[in-house]
Amino acid sequence: MPAEPTPNQLGDDEHLKVLGYEGSFNRSMSLWANFALGFTYLSPLVGVYSLFAVALTIGGPPSIWWIVIVGAGQLLVSLVFGEVVSQYPIHGGVYPWARRLWGRRYAWMAAWVYIWAMIVTITSVAEFGSGFVASLFELELTPTINLAITLALLVLAFVFNFSGTKTLARVAQIGLAAELVGVIGLGLYLLIFQRKQEFSVFFDTMGVEGDGSYLTAFMGAALAGLFLFYGFEACGDVAEEVSNPARRIPKAMTMTILVGGVSALFSFGGYVLAAPDLASIVAGDDPDPIPHILESTLGPVGAKLFLVVAVTAFISCVLSLQAAASRLLFSFARDGMIPGHRWLAKVSEKNKVPTNALIVACTVPALLAVLIFLNDGLLLPITSFAVLGIYVAFQMVVLASLRQRLKGWRPAGPFSLGAWGLIVNILALAYGVFAMVLLATPGATGDFFTDYVVLIGLGVVAISGALYLFIARPDRKSDAPAGDAIAVADEIRTRTGATAAVDAPAAR
């Protein structure tokens, strides 16, 4: 359990000055709004719906246990992030954390991989959401209609984001309510009133292993959990818009993982237990089973109401993704680490949001959507690397945190794991390596591009980023602080009077 925070704490503006920045944003985001942002980014409704059929086809009903396994692993990561953001409550999340824990070039690579993974995720979520919108309005989902709806979702999210932090918080909270109704509420209803399978089905492989080992099939279904549990880091991306972020953001990230995990379990489990013909789903005969399950359990009217909830959740998810991506771009630009940094670092005087960074976070996904319209075969290769890219960026922060701990860093924020910090950090890194190996393992279809598309996508992004880094040398053009974790911790303790409290036991 986290240790009790120190009795004295720096004010938000003073804390920011210690880190080398001046406040440019309205701190109007509460704990619940910050949690809502992370939760709607994580979006268990989107994750479960997207991978339900795939998970059952590969791993059968026991694939639900990946939600528990990955949730536990990502909880460890969120605790490491919690200590880091508590000392560094500044915009951008992964980028400034990697910079302050390691250095400029290291942070460049982490941010480059992460920003592209986020932008691709924005595109893919908007693309998936277009199907729900089309179903709600009973439109035939032609490529043209799909593109129009995708672009409309991106623009709508941009308009909400452009309106300011308060609007972002309100819409995120509406999305949170929609998610909870759509996953926990519906999941409980299916479990209690529409159950057609026994609970023992979650230990029944239903023959997916064929003549081989079930372990192989189970490991193949890992994406059911790995795709779901990221988004909690978005709570830290907007740190400078949160009141008392050093305390609240670690709580919001932990809540996102815990509530998201419970929600996903109820949702996934409810669909499995309510499926009237589970065998056909596991056999792969029904590639999109959730609409059929809803139709048979809720009826036409109930299914339509669920679509309203789902569309609301998708809009909120795109909104949260755009907000997180724009703050990362702003943070990157504020330190002079990206082309066009002066333009990208501008903050609207009226709405107090990074307007130009928001434009990029909307425009680039829109351009990707147009490319997908021109060649729908591009959707898989440009999105396949996203999950692995995000895990790579996460683990670069976890590794940098462990490196600083071994050099003597003791996190100085009000959220602290105390003596457990090193153990949790090691376990989080071990989990992350395990997850990345699972994500990077090539498929077995026999087609080179299909089997290696995840590694190809990550390789293209990583190599292009490395080439720019070593040719343009943006790290040499930035004089923002880097690698100062120990020095900043000492300064915070000095200003809060915590140094004496820490040194006292040794003096005795």
TrEMBL record:
Superkingdom, natural source: Bacteria
Q: Tell me which stretches of the chain form a coiled coil.
A: none
Entries under InterPro entries matching the protein? AA/rel_permease1
Which locations, inside or outside the cell, does it occupy? Answer: Membrane
State the annotated membrane topology for this chain. Multi-pass membrane protein
> What keywords would UniProt list here?
Membrane, Transmembrane, Transmembrane helix, Transport
Record has Transport as a keyword:
yes
- The keyword Membrane belongs to this UniProt entry's keyword annotation: yes
Please give the start and end residues of each transmembrane region.
31-58, 64-85, 106-125, 145-162, 174-192, 212-232, 252-274, 305-332, 353-374, 380-402, 414-440, 452-471
| PANTHER family cross-referenced by the UniProt entry | AMINO-ACID PERMEASE BAT1, OS04G0435100 PROTEIN
The name of this protein is APC family permease
Q: Which organism is it from?
A: Agromyces lapidis
